[in-house]
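Look at one record.

>
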Amino acid sequence: MERTLVLLKPDAVQRGLVGTIIARFESKGLKIVGLKARTFERSLLEKHYEVHKERPFYGNLVDFMSSGPVCAMALEGKDAIAVVRTLVGKTNAREAAPGTIRGDYGMSFSNNLVHASDAEDTAKFELGLWFSDAGELSDWTPADLEWRYSVKEEL
């Protein structure tokens, strides 16, 4: 099983899409192992997006992400990183395929509703930032695990 970070950005919160987006991940069969929502400290956002610090959009991105509440989630599942990235769709929501979260609900390149870790090392780093206390993450087994996966073949 793999874990990944998903951030529902301020535009998703402001538009009342948090429940709808979470339902997409849960319906796919991903398990929520961490969840919190609030307006996060600017220092956390700067550290999270530090890889983009030299890029022209960095300041606007940090401003946007600190403009209101964000819902941070740790999701778990088989190949969770790739599965989440597929569900989210292309960064530019106008180019995202119908059926993806951005394709169905977005129209912007910058205000694109969701951040999702792009690789295993990134997910590990980002989960450590957003869920730095191990007690914020829950280890549990869904009662319907055998209906989500072919346990004998896939797990």
